[in-house]
Amino acid sequence: MELAAAHPALKAFMCGSLSGTCSTLLFQPLDLVKTRLQTLQNNAKPGAPKVGMFRVFIHVIRTENFFSLWKGVSPSFVRCIPGVGIYFSTFYSLKQHFFQNRAPNAGEAVLLGAGARTVAGICMLPFTVIKTRFESGFYNYASVPGALRSMYETEGVRSLFSGLTATLLRDAPFSGIYVMFYSQAKRALPQEVTSAPYAPLVNFSCGVVAGIMASLVTQPADVVKTHIQVSPSHWSTADAVRYIYK
């Protein structure tokens, strides 16, 4: 009853936080493997064969342990639980303010998603940096507060916001493209499909397709972001792009 009586923006925040918790716990191993794959170039020898996702999975389990696949889940929780909540509440507020009486078109959906993600991304950036470092395996932080303190004392406050440009170049387009594809895919489906008992499966399928399309577009920015945030030398976005290209 208390949730039903809450402000819609607050309900969006709470539901977003719950979904962030579930998705973080479920997909953290894939996130860790993605980070390891993106940072392999740091130690790879010229002409060395490419390492695939499955080999990284096995390597982590053999050299560390099975639960090491969830390394970085603490900063992921700290980042995603409020971060997804901020995203959904901001998205709802923007939609209500600008599109109260109509559904946004494709271009407007991109701006909505990008705007909400920009706000959430900036707010949670320090925890995004810590999450990336936990997953990389290059740092031995004992806890999230310890990582914050260590980075601040040894590298300065700038390190907590490293990769801001690359992060926004990934997050804002990703969310904008995702919202556009998701909303347009649902709009293209017949009414009887979206209101049928298997509507949740339809929504899930639309979300998967939208996520794949958005990931393909923003993957280069994601790689650049990872390299910047793992490096303690405070690369610029241009420096990271040149390093990866070479």
TrEMBL record:
Q: Specify the protein's topology with respect to the membrane.
A: Multi-pass membrane protein
Q: According to its UniProt record, where is this protein located?
A: Membrane
Cite the InterPro entries for this sequence. MCP_dom_sf, MCP_transmembrane
Q: Does the keyword Transmembrane apply?
A: yes
The superkingdom listed in its UniProt entry is: Eukaryota
User: What keywords does the record list, in alphabetical order?
Assistant: Membrane, Transmembrane, Transport
- In this chain the Solcar repeats are located at 7-97, 104-188, 198-246
Q: Which family does it belong to?
A: Belongs to the mitochondrial carrier (TC 2.A.29) family.
PANTHER family referenced in this protein's UniProt entry, alphabetically: MITOCHONDRIAL GLYCINE TRANSPORTER, MITOCHONDRIAL GLYCINE TRANSPORTER B
Q: What is this protein called?
A: Solute carrier family 25 member 38
Task: Please give the organism.
Answer: Goodea atripinnis
